[in-house]
Structure formats: structure tokens, C-alpha cells
Specification:
- The complex is a heterodimer.
- Chain A is mainly α.
- Chain A has helices at residues 2-9, 27-39, 42-46, 85-94, 109-112, 117-127, 151-159, 173-183, 189-192, 233-242, 253-260, 267-278, 296-313, 331-334, 339-347, 372-383, 395-408, and strands at 59-62, 65-68, 140-141, 210-212, 215-217, 349-350, 362-363.
- A three-stranded antiparallel sheet of chain A has the order 1-2-3, with no helix packed on it. Chain A has a two-stranded antiparallel sheet with strand order 4-5.
- Chain A starts with a helix and ends with a helix.
- Residues 1-13 of chain A have low confidence and may be disordered.
- By secondary structure, chain B is of the alpha/beta class.
- Chain B has one domain (3-579): 3-Layer(bba) Sandwich (FAD/NAD(P)-binding domain).
- Chain B contains 13 helices and 24 strands.
- In chain B, strands 1, 2, 3, 11, 12, 13, 14 and 24 form an eight-stranded mixed sheet that branches. Chain B has a six-stranded antiparallel sheet with strand order 8-17-18-19-16-22, with helices on one face. A four-stranded mixed sheet of chain B has the order 5-4-21-20, covered by helices on one side.
- In chain B, a hairpin with a 7-residue loop joins strand 4 and strand 5 (85-86).
- Chain B is globular and about 70 Å long.
- Classes of the chains: A mainly alpha, B alpha/beta.
- At the A-B interface, helix 13 of A face helix 2 and strand 10 of B.
Chain lengths: 409, 587
């Protein structure tokens, strides 16, 4: 049983992509590497919008400062053309780049470590085929003392467990494939797993939601209150494949993940991810008591909602499938952390466009029209109506978010 | 000197309804397509956010989405013996500008012409004898039949998700629909909109008088819908901000809502906005277009060579570009010879306003195209013997909005300003309703478009000159229709009622409609038409005018957009299925 599961998980590995000398140019390895590059969403960080593929340059805002994703084209001067296979594998599995340079975990080696050497070398084989681009990137723009890469030795010791994926023999092959994709190449936890003060994963609560880059990536466990436990497998598959389902539409950083990665995954892999996510954990907070409808803030929020939100999201918070997200009973709305909710009200956001869901509707910005008290009231109302329950949002929280959004523009 | 760009398979002039439909189909067929649009880029998500799209002052009063006369205008006169003057404020009709064109600011009224409309001259002559037509009336049969166009109407309605109730499914009459309409191959894509009280009262009164009221076909959707391009549309919220506005609820069909999201994903399509086409270029024989020359906002001129040129601008500017480019023989009303600019027509509208003191009508709950309509007096749905006119129109209760700045009905005798006016407008708002007729405008020898001899545009090109007035036939028709409407209005037991039949002369400073038609008419005879039945120029075989209202031989008693859209699909099929296989004259 165990052996067959391992086989299923790494079922691509018919052709070894590792050689003692010289990079492989085997077509099957390149094809497999191309797909693994999609699964791993390398382009999400290493290709700028409209830029040359994998030439680097995307800025990542971390709580510690800015990192710029480097050039991973085969350019020998500014890319990774001169890297040995061992150096490339080490970067992904151990967070150690060329000559042992320590990478920052914005590069999700904490997830990629689950990938086999052969899978990683397939990625390398593919990256060797993309057009080399001369583009020098100064990756490390962190302030002192975070700019000292050696500090990552301590960080790794505290936060990083290297090691390949090990299948769970008690689970199905599909579940294990999903687990591999989520924990490994898909690196879902990079955004969705809560972080410690040092930016490491809170290992006790994987995928239960986290705030980064001004967005709250919601709980994607099967929690029915603030996770995705109300979704069927089909709902989740549809969301990942098209960026939209009957409840919601992907926007913000998830729109990028859908564009570059999940919409291009094979149907079986998306189904495996859904099986794993909906079959794991019930992490997250329990349902609190909703704030009563006759609470004064709720009453103000109800009026604002009727005026500004109801035409699209409907009086009953049901929204309109594939167009305007449902607000009743959804994860982002009921999350303890209202960052995403506040952000889309203040700044608006645009849904992703995919070939099967090309509409790409948008939430308009309301920052010019609603003051902090009004945004707080309408958010509190949305979070505690139609069966929803979540802590009230304060005007101070909205004020802080308004300031930080203005600064990041 | 224009800089020459790499050649494309297709250059599309104007990215409104017809331009976006043609671009989509030809790009999907594998052709390299560039659309050149005079105005700005606009998309639903970015430009019509519901957070501010319902701004009456900005859009309805200051006309934010429309063409500015400083960019392009035309000169106008009623009669050939007058000197035409430039229109310095668009008022009587409002040409659109920018991506989406008039398809953004329309009301969503989605009508098919009657089967008899397509063979108008033959039909009227057969039924009444040739003497019923005034000597100077130049109406003619369409080169396509209703039966041929039916599948294309269906395609455009499905693109838009049009809401309505069929009255004739494959020849079988349907209760609740329009009993006079031509046969439909399918029900409307979405069911009819809900009706307000004003429309409901009108329908009751009309039924009492033996008419057959039915819900107006609307591309303001009654429910969420996914169109054949995979684009999702939302349920109308009845906000009443349709005409002159973009719809950020994805409820009113428009090129940006219904086509562009899919079109933009076709890699062999590009759009060049804020760029005005100066002329269509011809080769030395004058029988083949080589592309277009356009100017960008920096004043740089570019030549875009192309194998096929599609003229998809607004009706009036299609005519202007043909004249400026020297394609087709300009129409001369004295000799009656020539074709470009011939058979300009319009629309003949009128209204009856009622005040129903004991009813609360909530007129602000509205869409651009809901309402209850009767079609008993349209086209030749009624006997014209001894009436002294031909033509007709639909009529009904379809008040499109109750917007606060411009909806200020008052009883007769109210002062035009001051405290008494304010009091009256506050008291009347909830109880007033406007009923309207929407009548045909047939074409005449002395109504035409040509190049103005005096006035030039900012680019040095002659402005187009419009010579148009209402004729006795249309004014009699409007009087007749307005009387019939007033009879129904009276049956609503109004406290007060005012009938406003259309009176001449045509006044270009009072808004009536933007249904300007004709000038590049399609027909079977090159002596009386600019285009053959496929929308292809008789003179320049690689130039098509795919269904702008400029191709109408005359205007019928319906809003033009559905026919414009159907003809766009019709020409798209003719190009992909016939022209591409054997480029040359299709007739």
C-alpha cells in the first residue's frame, strides 16, 4: 500500500531528470518541469506583469522589509545559468543558494523541501529552456539587521524542517496527491498559514488564515464558520480552475495564483487539492455570538449596506453567482481578521479573468465616500447579519488600514 | 506624413456594438484584427463602478460619456434653401464616443423590425396601391428578409441576454407576448422584467380597450445570465440610470459587458484608442481599400494597412468617412442620383403625460426598457386605408427613470420657476407618469447627408451636413398615434392629461432620440444603395459596413439596436463563410 501511494504521488517520475554531468535536455523532463513550474507558481514571484518570463523583479513586501524576486532565467551573468544542479536543488530543498548563500523564506523553500530531487531537476530542465534575460536584481533590500543572511541560520533552526513529502498510508491516493501539492509545490501555507512573530509557520494551525501584504488570506480548512467547509468539492474545484464559483471570486494575490497556477492545473490535480483541503482539519476559531441587529452600530451599518452594497450583494447578502460574492456565510467575511474585507471596501478589487470565467467584475472603491466610522459600521453589519457572526470592526482599525493603503499606493 | 504600420488582416473603425462583434468573430476565425477607436477606453469594472455611476449631473446633464462637438460635429438645416450651421451643443441627438459607443448609453430597448418592414415598398404597394406613397418618399425594400435575419436577431438577443416574452414562437401565437411580432425561433433568453404601477395601470387600460399589451423587450436583465461568450451578467436593480449611463451592475447589455471580456482574451486582437481615422485609403484603381490613416492624440498620423476594412462607427460618421474617402457616388437631391448620404431618416416620437393623484407611482423604480407596450399601431399592423399616412409605431408606458434633476413633472398652469414650481414638483413627482409613442421615420428625397461647403472639423475635414425635416406623412402619423395613446391614457382615469404629438419643424436643440439612420443604405440595386445585402460596398469589395444604422433604407417604428446587432452577426458570417474563401464582390 505504502509503495503504491508513493508511486502515485510521484507518478511523473518515469524518466529520471538527474544526470551526473550535464543538464538533461530530455523532452519529457522539460514538459514535466514546465508543469511543476506551473504547480509551484514560480512565475507568480519571478515574472513581473508584462515582463519577460522568470526575469525577476517582483517586489515582495514582508513584515521585515522588501525582497525582490531574483532572475531565474538561464542567463549566466544575472540569472541561474551557472548554477550546478546541486545548488539548484539545495535552494529549493534547504534554502541555500549558490555557494551556500542563505535564502530568505519569502522563497517558499519551507514548502518546496517536500519536493523530490527529480521533480526539482525537472523544473531546472524547463527553466534551462526559457529565454535568458540579462537583468540584474538586487534581491535583498531588507534593512539592518534583517539584511544579514546569516541570520537565516537561526531562523531555519527555529522554523524550518527540511524533508521530502511522506504519504499517509491511511489516506487515499488522491488525498495524498492533494497533500503533496498543497504542502509542497503549491505552497498554499506560504499565504494561508498563520505566522509567528519571526515569520515562521505556526505549525499547530496550518492553513487557518494569515495576513500578508495587506490582505488576509482566509482559512482554507474545512471549518464551516470561517473556512471553506461549506463548499462542496465541485465548488472548490470550480474556484481553483476558473477563479469563480457560486459563492465568490478570486481577487488580490489569489487572482495571481489562479492566473499563473491553479487555472492551469490538470483537473485531477485540482480535484486532489480539493479532496485534501476539505478532508483536513477544522482549524480556526469557533463561531462567536453574533452582534444583535438592534445594536446602534448595526443599525447604521444596515442603512449604509442598503444604500451602497445591496444593489449587487442583495438585501439578503446572497450576492449573484459568478459576479458579486456572497457575503452570507463566507470565510473572508467571518474571519476574525477583517483585513481583506476592509481593504476591498476602501480600495476595491478586481476579480481574476480566466478563459472559462472571463467577466472579471470589480468591487468599486468606497474610501472617498465612506468615512472610517461608516466603513466600520457596514463591516460590522455584514459580519453579523444573515447568520454571520464575527467580532465588530472598529473605526480605529479602518483608519489604520486607510493610512497603510495610502502609503502603499 | 503618416508612418506606415505593419499590415493587419482586418482594421475595424470604431469599437462599439458592431465593431466589437465583428472583431470577436474575425479574430476567433484566426484573423489579425486591430480596432481603431476615436474615444477613450472604457470597461465596465473600471469605468462604471456602482459607487458613483449613478451621477445624474455628471452623466445625464453634463453628458460625460458623449462626443464633444469640439472633437467632431456636423452642420444642420431643415431645408435645402437654408444655410446649415454647426451644432455646437449636441442636444436633439447625442452621438456616443469611445469604446462601447452608443452601446453604453442606450436604454436597452431590444426590438425586432416587423417582417413587412423588410419589404416595405412592395408590401405597401401591394396592399394599398402605389398611390398611397407620397411622390417624394424614397422608401425601399431591404435586401434581406425577416426570415433570413431571424437567426441573427436570436444571436444578438442571446449575446445581450434580452428579457421578454415571445408572442410568436415558430408561428404559434403565445399569450402575453407581442401578437404582431415576426416569428421567433426561441423564447427570450431571460423572462420579462417586473413592471411598476404606472405600466401596470396602462396595461389594464389598454386591455380594456381591446389592445394587446406586453412587456417591452429589454436588455436590462430580469435575472442573472451567462451569455454564449461565457460572460456573466447580473440581475437589474431597477435603479433607473440606464440611458446616458454605463451599467456597473452588469445588467444592461453593452459591448464592454457582453463582448470585450472575451474579445480581450483573443491574442490576435488589439485596440488602438484615442485615435481618429482620417480616411479610408484606396489603391490606384479605387476599387480596393488598402487600409486607413489615423491620427493619435499627439497629432501623429499613422497608416494602418489591412486586407479588409470594416466601417463600424456611429451611423452619421460612417457616412462622413465614406464621403471624405471618396467611396461611392455622393447623393444629389436635385437629380436624385448618387447614393452616399441618401435616405437619411430619424424617428418620430411623441408623448402623453398623465397625473394620477390617488396613485403612488414610485417612478424611480425603473429601467431603460421595462414598461408595457402595445404594437397594434406599428408598421402596417393596422389598416391605413384613408388615414392619409403610412407607417406607425409602438406606444406604451415605459418611463425609463425618475431621476431627481430632470424628472420634474408639474400640472398645467404651474409657473416655470419659484416657490410655486417647487411646491408643485414635490407634490406631483410621485403621481406623474409619461407615456410615449415611438414612430417610424420614412425616407425622402430632400432628407440627406453631405459634406458641408463651409465648415471644417479640427482636422481640416469638411463637417457633415444634415438636411432633415419631418414630413406631413410622419406628422399625421404622430397625431394619429398620439390620439390612440391619449384614449388609453384617458381610460387610466387621470386627474390631468397632456398630449404632445410631434410637431414640425424638426428642432435639433430638443432631445428626441439618437436613432439617426441611413446614408450608407444596403440594397439590391447599386443605383439606390451603397452596400449590397452583405453590407459590402458595391464599389470597394474589401470594405464592409456591418450593420450600423446607416445601412437602414428608412427607419421603422422600433429602436434600431437589435437590428444593428443582428446585421453585425449577418455580415460577420458573410465574411467568414463567403468572403474569406473568395475575396471579391459577393454580389
Amino acid at each position: 500500500m505504502y509503495r503504491s501511494l508513493t508511486f502515485a504521488v510521484t507518478s511523473f517520475a518515469f524518466i529520471a531528470c538527474a544526470h551526473a554531468q550535464g543538464a538533461t535536455q530530455d523532452f519529457s523532463c522539460i514538459e514535466r518541469g514546465h508543469y511543476l513550474t506551473t504547480l509551484s507558481d514560480c512565475a507568480g514571484c519571478h515574472t513581473t506583469a508584462g515582463g519577460k518570463p522568470f526575469a525577476g523583479g517582483v517586489a515582495l513586501q514582508t513584515p521585515f522589509g522588501t525582497l525582490i524576486a531574483p532572475n531565474i532565467t538561464p542567463d549566466t551573468d544575472t540569472g541561474i545559468g551557472n548554477w550546478s544542479d546541486d545548488e539548484f536543488v539545495s535552494a529549493l530543498q534547504d534554502g541555500r543558494g549558490r555557494n551556500g548563500t542563505r535564502l530568505y523564506p519569502a522563497m517558499p523553500y519551507t514548502a518546496y523541501t517536500k519536493m523530490s530531487r527529480d521533480d526539482i531537476l525537472a523544473i531546472r530542465a524547463y527553466l534551462n529552456t526559457v529565454t535568458p534575460v540579462h537583468n540584474r536584481v538586487n534581491a535583498n533590500q531588507l534593512p539592518f539587521p534583517f539584511n544579514i543572511r546569516l541570520a537565516m541560520m537561526v531562523w531555519n533552526w527555529l522554523n524550518f524542517t527540511p524533508g521530502r513529502f511522506v504519504a499517509d498510508p491511511h489516506q487515499s491516493a488522491e488525498w495524498n496527491r492533494g497533500a503533496y501539492l498543497v504542502q509542497g509545490p503549491g505552497h498554499c501555507g506560504a499565504c494561508h498559514t498563520p505566522k509567528t512573530a519571526l515569520g515562521g509557520d505556526k505549525t499547530g494551525a496550518p492553513l487557518t488564515g494569515a495576513t500578508l501584504q495587506g490582505w488576509f488570506a482566509p482559512n482554507i480548512t474545512a471549518n464551516k464558520h470561517n473556512g471553506i467547509g461549506r463548499w462542496s468539492k465541485d465548488d472548490l474545484v470550480h474556484y481553483l480552475k476558473t477563479g469563480a464559483n457560486n459563492d465568490t471570486l478570486a481577487s488580490g494575490p489569489m487572482a495571481e495564483a489562479v492566473t499563473h497556477s491553479t487555472s492551469q492545473m490538470k483537473d485531477a490535480d485540482v480535484a486532489a487539492i480539493a479532496t485534501y483541503l476539505l478532508g483536513t482539519g477544522q482549524g480556526g476559531t469557533d463561531r462567536p455570538t453574533p452582534i444583535a441587529a438592534d445594536n446602534p452600530t448595526m443599525k447604521v451599518g444596515a442603512e449604509i449596506y442598503k444604500d451602497a452594497c445591496a444593489p449587487c450583494h442583495q438585501d439578503n447578502g446572497q450576492g449573484s453567482a459568478q459576479l458579486f460574492p456572497r457575503l452570507a456565510g463566507t470565510a473572508v467575511v467571518q474571519s476574525d481578521d477583517p483585513t481583506t474585507l476592509g481593504r476591498v471596501v476602501l480600495e476595491g478589487s478586481r476579480a481574476v479573468a480566466t478563459n472559462s470565467a472571463p467577466t472579471a467584475p470589480a468591487m468599486p472603491a468606497f474610501d472617498w465616500r465612506l468615512d472610517n466610522d461608516q466603513v466600520a459600521a457596514v463591516l460590522t453589519y455584514i459580519r453579523n447579519s444573515w447568520g454571520n457572526a464575527a467580532p465588530a470592526v472598529s473605526a480605529a482599525t479602518v483608519a489604520k488600514q486607510r493610512t497603510s493603503l495610502a502609503q502603499s499606493r | 506624413m503618416a508612418r506606415k504600420l505593419p499590415s493587419k488582416n482586418v482594421v475595424v473603425i470604431g469599437l462599439g456594438w458592431t465593431g466589437s462583434i465583428l472583431s470577436y468573430h474575425l479574430a476567433k476565425a484566426g484573423l489579425d484584427v486591430v480596432a481603431i477607436e476615436r474615444g477613450p477606453w472604457r470597461d465596465t469594472a473600471t469605468n462604471f463602478p456602482p459607487a458613483y455611476a449613478q451621477d445624474e449631473l455628471r452623466y445625464a446633464v453634463r453628458l460625460d460619456l458623449f462626443l464633444r462637438p469640439a472633437q467632431e460635429t456636423l452642420t444642420f438645416r431643415n431645408k435645402a434653401d437654408q444655410i446649415a450651421l454647426p451644432i455646437r451643443n449636441f442636444a436633439g441627438f447625442l452621438p456616443g464616443n469611445g469604446v462601447g459607443g452608443a452601446g453604453i448609453h442606450w436604454n436597452g430597448q431590444t426590438w425586432r423590425f416587423l417582417p413587412t418592414d423588410f419589404r416595405l415598398r412592395s408590401h405597401l404597394t401591394e396592399r394599398y396601391g402605389a398611390n398611397i406613397l407620397p411622390d417624394d418618399m424614397t422608401i425601399q425594400d431591404w435586401p434581406v428578409s425577416y426570415d433570413e435575419l431571424e437567426p441573427y436577431y436570436d444571436r444578438f438577443e442571446k449575446l445581450c441576454g434580452t428579457s421578454g416574452k415571445a408572442g410568436n414562437l415558430k408561428g404559434v401565437k403565445q399569450d402575453g407576448g407581442n401578437p404582431f411580432e415576426g416569428w421567433r425561433s426561441a423564447e427570450y433568453p431571460t423572462p420579462p422584467l417586473k413592471q411598476g404601477l404606472g405600466a401596470t395601470l396602462f396595461a389594464e387600460a389598454a386591455r380594456k380597450l381591446g389592445h394587446s399589451p406586453f412587456p417591452q423587450p429589454a436588455s436590462n436583465l430580469s435575472e442573472a445570465y451567462t451569455n454564449p461568450l461565457g460572460i456573466r451578467m447580473g440581475q437589474c436593480s431597477y435603479c433607473g440610470f440606464c440611458e446616458r449611463f454605463g451599467c456597473g451592475n452588469y445588467s444592461k447589455a453593452s459591448p464592454q459587458t457582453c463582448v470585450l471580456p472575451a474579445l480581450l482574451r483573443v491574442p490576435n486582437f488589439t485596440a488602438q484608442t484615442e485615435s481618429e481615422v482620417l480616411k479610408i485609403n484606396l489603391d490606384s484603381t479605387g476599387k480596393r481599400a488598402t487600409g486607413v490613416t489615423y491620427v493619435d492624440t499627439s497629432g501623429k498620423e499613422w497608416e494602418q494597412p489591412a486586407d479588409i476594412v470594416l466601417l463600424c462607427a456611429f451611423a452619421l460618421f460612417n457616412v462622413q468617412l465614406m464621403l471624405i474617402s471618396g467611396i461611392g457616388k455622393p447623393y444629389d437631391p436635385v437629380s436624385g442620383q448618387g447614393v452616399v448620404g441618401r435616405n437619411y431618416a430619424y424617428q418620430t416620437t411623441s408623448s402623453v403625460s398623465v397625473i394620477l393623484k390617488d396613485k403612488v407611482l414610485n417612478p424611480f423604480i425603473a429601467t431603460g426598457a421595462h414598461g408595457m407596450i402595445i404594437d397594434d399601431y406599428n408598421g402596417d399592423n393596422f389598416d391605413h386605408t384613408n388615414l392619409g399616412f403610412v407607417g406607425g409605431g409602438y406606444m406604451g408606458a415605459g418611463q425609463t427613470n425618475g431621476r431627481p434633476i430632470q424628472t420634474r413633472p408639474v400640472p398645467k398652469g404651474t409657473p416655470k420657476w419659484g416657490a410655486a414650481w417647487k411646491k408643485a414638483t414635490a407634490e406631483t413627482y410621485q403621481h406623474a407618469y409619461s407615456l410615449s409613442t415611438h414612430g417610424s421615420s420614412y425616407s425622402y428625397r430632400d432628407c440627406w447627408l453631405d459634406l458641408d461647403p463651409t465648415y471644417k472639423d479640427r482636422l481640416g475635414r469638411p463637417l457633415m451636413r444634415m438636411t432633415f425635416d419631418f414630413h406631413e406623412n410622419e406628422l399625421k402619423m404622430s397625431a394619429f398615434l398620439t390620439e390612440r395613446l391619449a384614449e388609453i391614457a384617458k381610460a387610466m382615469n387621470p386627474t390631468e392629461m397632456q398630449a404632445h404629438p410631434r410637431k414640425g419643424p424638426y428642432d435639433s436643440t430638443i432631445y428626441q432620440t439618437t436613432h439617426n439612420t441611413g446614408g450608407t443604405v444596403m440594397g439590391d440595386d447599386p443605383q439606390t444603395s451603397v452596400l449590397n445585402r452583405y453590407g459590402q460596398s458595391w464599389d470597394v469589395h474589401n470594405l464592409f459596413v456591418p450593420g450600423g444604422a446607416s445601412v437602414f433604407p428608412q427607419n421603422h417604428g422600433y429602436n434600431p439596436t437589435n437590428t444593428v446587432g443582428a446585421l453585425a452577426f449577418w455580415t460577420a458570417d458573410a465574411i467568414t463563410q463567403r468572403y474569406l474563401k473568395n475575396p471579391g464582390p459577393l454580389m
